[in-house]
Amino acid sequence: VNQNLSSADHAPALSFKSDNITGASPEVISAIVAASAGQASPYGTDDLTARVERKLGDIFEREVGVFLVPTGTAANAISLGSMTPPWGSIFCHPDSHINNDECGAPEFYSNGAKLVAVGGPSAKMDVEKLRSLARVKVGDVHAVQPSCASISQATETGSIYSLDEIRAIGDVCRSSSIRLHMDGSRFANALVTLGCTPAEMTWKAGVDALSFGATKNGVVAAEAIVLFDTSLSKELAFRRKRGAHLFSKMRLLSSQMDAYLKDDLWLRNARQANLMATRLSNGFAGLDGVETFGATEANIVFCRLPSLMIEALLNAGFQFYYDRWEPNVVRFVTSFATTERDVDHLLSHMRLATAGAAV
Amino acid sequence: VNQNLSSADHAPALSFKSDNITGASPEVISAIVAASAGQASPYGTDDLTARVERKLGDIFEREVGVFLVPTGTAANAISLGSMTPPWGSIFCHPDSHINNDECGAPEFYSNGAKLVAVGGPSAKMDVEKLRSLARVKVGDVHAVQPSCASISQATETGSIYSLDEIRAIGDVCRSSSIRLHMDGSRFANALVTLGCTPAEMTWKAGVDALSFGATKNGVVAAEAIVLFDTSLSKELAFRRKRGAHLFSKMRLLSSQMDAYLKDDLWLRNARQANLMATRLSNGFAGLDGVETFGATEANIVFCRLPSLMIEALLNAGFQFYYDRWEPNVVRFVTSFATTERDVDHLLSHMRLATAGAAV
Amino acid sequence: VNQNLSSADHAPALSFKSDNITGASPEVISAIVAASAGQASPYGTDDLTARVERKLGDIFEREVGVFLVPTGTAANAISLGSMTPPWGSIFCHPDSHINNDECGAPEFYSNGAKLVAVGGPSAKMDVEKLRSLARVKVGDVHAVQPSCASISQATETGSIYSLDEIRAIGDVCRSSSIRLHMDGSRFANALVTLGCTPAEMTWKAGVDALSFGATKNGVVAAEAIVLFDTSLSKELAFRRKRGAHLFSKMRLLSSQMDAYLKDDLWLRNARQANLMATRLSNGFAGLDGVETFGATEANIVFCRLPSLMIEALLNAGFQFYYDRWEPNVVRFVTSFATTERDVDHLLSHMRLATAGAAV
Amino acid sequence: VNQNLSSADHAPALSFKSDNITGASPEVISAIVAASAGQASPYGTDDLTARVERKLGDIFEREVGVFLVPTGTAANAISLGSMTPPWGSIFCHPDSHINNDECGAPEFYSNGAKLVAVGGPSAKMDVEKLRSLARVKVGDVHAVQPSCASISQATETGSIYSLDEIRAIGDVCRSSSIRLHMDGSRFANALVTLGCTPAEMTWKAGVDALSFGATKNGVVAAEAIVLFDTSLSKELAFRRKRGAHLFSKMRLLSSQMDAYLKDDLWLRNARQANLMATRLSNGFAGLDGVETFGATEANIVFCRLPSLMIEALLNAGFQFYYDRWEPNVVRFVTSFATTERDVDHLLSHMRLATAGAAV
């Protein structure tokens, strides 16, 4: 029985800081336990890893290159490193994780490529800006050369690119001869919202390489680099090892990923996380002084709260980021482990704070 | 009860290829399960990680910097990267893991430092050779600059530096103003053989940074960089993150390490591995045509076997490396999970092969 | 007699594209010839190089570290590489040469540091923006760390930081514990305009390292990295050699620099260049349809010309950049070699085109 | 008239330390002077550079990629950087310049490739050792991958690979799918000794890229990277610029190279240097206590001298390296600027010292 889901016998979870503060789904834990027994061939030559590779091929309906790594930053940086020369540029949104939160890992793994910011509303790259930047100074030896673009699906603010938006970016990349990477740290959250197939959201729309996230959605630490441009596979094997990300006991990663992909656990977990975010933002209606920003598309809710309410929630033990973006702006993140009880508990405290303020 | 140790109800383990083909100690698995429940602060700011740091401080009897990483290559490459400028040289034995088996990870993490081989018998660096090389071309702008040395304890062939040998190397390093790193992938195996304290085998002998291995000795995937020169700590935090080795759910690593260090599990496991190696090499006595190389100091046994015996063992399903170093030279590696029954099973097949050959 | 200055017996020079299309001052050529005779100690251990180092110390009124290199990009990239760790950020104006025109050389020499753009009018960094950015995420392991700032004096558009502006930036750098670099590709052009001492424009205002340009102002190919923070000197010697910029026959560089600094040639050359730019922009007055942008502070003049005039000038053989920034925007660059006759020749053609258009 | 060659009115040159202590041929100086006049298109788009490219194509009898750079280390490091991935190995002789004297520039420009030493007598790589090393661990993700080999022609000790020897190495490279680089810092010295064509000594024997040296043989500072595998050209342009080796006033380099290649100056200079070395070693015959090592094939002479003779020569003002390799071992290097009078002057002092010792 999972402690996360059997909320009845536990106090409600109080932190909405991030989806990386949760544990793992019970199926994943069981898989780790099972995989830790006995002898197995090392460095990814084991049966379990082969099964994961097959499963991902099935899910994406085509031949793929699969490279398991322990962190999302590794997935992003290693795959990007294979998609640009050191004198190339990587187009990304100014608010993207690779641009802000990876301590320059993409620069490190690419031996010094340049991240070039391409703005756009809702943390999504503006396709017209990308189109014009992707053509600038091509062939000019004085300038870094447009080499690839990276989009986050879902984005760092919880927004989601529509299939048309991805295809438009994919078209620009193809016509500019640059590659397209997708940071899918919250891939499942986006997928269940769009209701499309994994293939449609990736290679059919022009994506060449995907960081297929699992850590935020039910496993402890495991991500897969999924290559649709399999010409990159040979080089990627060396890049992963050289980056020190090749596990001798690969089963620790593959067991997690195997359980994650089994019986749609990954989709069920993402639906739960998204549903709880929607329940939360729906609950804001009728709360005086609470302003929501944009639609709730994945598992992240941004809103503006009165200072007194923020204070009251903190005093009650709740955890969340606030005042980071603008004064009084708060971010709540739900996860596969968030329960209705957790959300309702938070909402009841918000209601209480409103009532208190009204007195 | 661990499947590995309860050999009674399992077939004997057949692979002696490496200590990385084993699973994990049951205590470690239980710790992972326990740690995977509920919410925890991310990126190593959790209580479990703090406890591991304290434990390692206790074990080494001093203030240390602790950085958990998932692979031994990461531990080596990240710590070495902080001990040399890009234009520096890293002295190491030609047979060392960093020189041969890490796909240039030390070069990558140091931004291009040069590994300079310093030979010596038994896979151990000759201290006099180190002494003379550490003084060559110091200050000469045309040459890479002596910056650090790295020794493996136990070495890649299973030999062990005595305390005197480490101290002598430490003295050379100090007098040449270069730093000393220890690749402790099999640290515990060496420690229990020497019967000294962890402090004596490291910083008291002049070691500045240690790759404290656990993966080969009872955990699934977890290593600790232990800094005795804590002036390197600040920079190491950035190097680890930039290398994409900072886990958001650090508890996966810290839970393993916590269990590994608890109740001397790490020492008990190492003793078992070493004991089984000794049992094996002792068993060679009286086997016609089996030639052993050197003393069995840790958990690795090198020997020369007749071709027919090698063939017979392979046919019986045993796994091990052979013909890699010289024709007919075989390497057997035992681990914490190796049982007397496993060893005796192997020996009986060797005896059988001898008898067969004798007929 | 210099072919460049004795314009009487030559056709007027037609290219105003850049100050890198000119040859060299006759004094510089003579110095190269003289230095190419006989034997000299290699790799910068010769007398001439020592003299250049002394001269720069005199000019800057203090102890300096001096490293001659052949290109401005080398001066910038090597010095910046010593002022930031790979996980650092380099603040610079979005229009700066290091950000746009060096093919990522600063990223290469810094092993992957991140250039962070700090906007501001007239190609000059806004000090308040710098102040806030220099404090963001300091100590946060997920973010690249503020490490240095780089300003261009004169800027890429020919504008000039006042002493107060440099000091304000220097203060921000010091209070944020980051270093300050000056790209002085057109150092002399700025200096003669400000009428201050070299010391005042650099270390007295907070500059730690300077790319002291000469190539655009009278030599063929020679620049000096001038370190005011001489703690960087030792490391810089290795960085220069490792970058393959240490000349065995250093006299080729030092002879140029020696002549450049002798009898104020560098200042005289810069004055001539600036004067010719002013003569040109003054000449625009009274030309119908010619719009000048900003004051002419150094040797670069930006203006907007009618399409027909651009066409007429091109047809007459003149060379200059246009339509690069905005339609009809033209850049004229003068140099030490530009003569009154060259400028007047250009102006007369502009006048002609105006007249033609007026008909 | 060249000061170097018109020895009559000068004291004999006393330094035999290296061929990098000389100045330049008068034809080269004149070319620099001529090229420094007037306006020219920057960054290698000028006519002179185009002419040099054509000339090198003619000399090598085929299409080549040509990239002028100022130092031999730049030529080596940039071309090697394009011939190996960061996880590759570069085979070279342990005594090679790239291995010992470039402060890790090849590692820097290749982003951390590994130089693997392949021994052999006379500073020449043993082809059988290369053959076996080039096949080791190919495809093994744990090992750096054989990527290219680099040979020096002439070598650092003045020996010369025969055409057969180069072809044998070329065959090994081709059959192992690795590229072959030639460090031709003393290319002309080797060529005139072998008496073959430049094509025969390079691409016809399997060389893919050449560092075509000129600095040691008559110019002040200019080398050419000559690519026979022209598929590397596009990338090399970016690598040169990113390394900060693209001169805006390229004419400084191209004028030197143009004069160097004109009227066989490069061959005449090399012949003079070699001849003077032979004159010197021939002169050793009959000198008591002087032991010569090997044949004199290029412009370097190694010998063993009595201590008293070394002392006497030093006292007389002569300069040379000694006691570096072994006690009493001396290296004399001649150059294009060495005259019969210089050599005879040295020999007479040696004779004097012998006589003195004999008394």
Structure overview:
In chain A, helix 12 packs parallel to helix 14 (340-358). Chain A is built from 14 helices and eleven strands. In chain A, the strands form two sheets. In chain A, strands 1-7-6-5-4-2-3 form a seven-stranded mixed β-sheet, sandwiched between helices. In chain A, strands 8-9-11-10 form a four-stranded antiparallel β-sheet, covered by helices on one side. By secondary structure, the first copy, chain A, is of the alpha/beta class. Chains A and B meet through helix 1, helix 3, helix 5 and helix 10 of A and helix 1, helix 3, helix 5 and helix 10 of B.
What's a quick, concise take on this entry?
Four copies of one chain form a homotetramer. Chain A contains 14 helices and eleven strands.
Order of helices and strands of chain A: HHEHEHHEHEHEHHEEHHHEEHEEH
Question: What's the quaternary structure here?
Answer: homotetramer
Distance between the termini of chain A: 44 Å
Number of strands of chain A: 11
Query: What's the story with the biggest beta sheet of chain A?
Result: 7 strands, mixed
Strand order of the largest sheet of chain A: 1-7-6-5-4-2-3
Biggest chain pair contact, residues each?
A-B, 56 and 56 residues
Rg of chain A, Cα atoms, Å: 21 Å
Please state the average pLDDT score of chain A.
Answer: 95
Strand content of chain A: 5-15%
Question: What structural category characterises the helix and strand content of chain A?
Answer: alpha/beta
Task: Name a few traits of the molecule.
homotetramer, alpha/beta, 4-stranded antiparallel sheet, 14 helices, globular
